[in-house]
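Dock NAP; give full complex structure.
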Amino acid sequence: MAHIYDTIIIGGGPAGLSAGLYAARSKMDTLIIERSKFGGQTATTDELENYPGSIENCTGPELIERMRKQAEEFGTKFAKDEITTVDFSGKIKKLVGNKETYEAKTIIIASGAYPRLAGFESELELRGKGVSYCATCDADFFTELDVAVIGGGDSALTESIYLTKFADNVTIIHRRDQFRGAKSIQDKVFNNPKIKIIYDSVVEAAKGDEILEGLTLKNVKTGEASDLKVDGCFVFVGYLPISELFTGKIKLDEAGYIITDEEMRTDIPGVFAAGDVRQKSLRQVITAAADGAIAATNAEHYIENEFDELHV
Ligand code: NAP
């Protein structure tokens, strides 16, 4: 018979690691399953200036490693596997992975979100050949070169500032004439001499066969087309939830985010969700970590108060 965990957490980002910490600290038999790298999007973030306490240039990977160690010290176990099927119909929930099948009394889904594509011609063909979705991973390749950044939210602005540490010139291309990102970050962008801004414009195509050579832009107000010679193009146009696995199994909203109540309960008893995969208004490390703590605490309450009463 398979080992039955008290809780299995799907995803090893801030929500999952925080859930692991709280669950293990409550003496729950806890497993975190991560399919690739711990940390999710936080692992690709250079500076976390708005996470309380991280005042000394704390990077995403450093914070994640501390969270992982802390959860481990309290007894959280970890598995590297990709879950391909879930069965939430019984009292014991089942997860089928590429390597193993897992069973638990409760599940906490913390699978996060992934970068949205901008949708220009040759975007996928030139991905990894000049088109990137992670400045922390790829900025180094563009030392003393010219790069473009697409987007106008916090990610585009924050990562543009980071990219100026490497690239000679960073050109932000935004589809409107106002940024969506926080005013304090906008000020840093406006005051950075290495950053140029092209408003009211979208990228229509990336040029280059083997490697990116430039972008074709279109001004959305005038319809005018122009070329921009760049060596790199970083796309930061938002994120999409990683929730396909749960379609038809739990309640999702129209965009695919998991719907929970304030206690992180989904519509299936014993199944909780936390972090960016959840329908919510603020997707930040701090809200992901808070979600994880709430989900784990309620998973514990569920086992104590409801699990034994179930006869499914
Ligand atoms: P976001 O806030 O959704 O912004 C996406 C940006 O991309 C918007 O400016 C949007 O333009 C633009 N966009 C969307 N689709 C596009 C397309 N197809 N072509 C061109 N532009 C497109 O996403 P985000 O910046 O990744 O942030 C996600 C969440 O993480 C937010 O809650 C944000 O506050 C948070 N975050 C916070 C920090 C921080 O340091 N505090 C850092 C990163 C992220 P419009 O403005 O015209 O819609």
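Observed: The CA atoms of residues 43 and 122 lie 27 Å apart.
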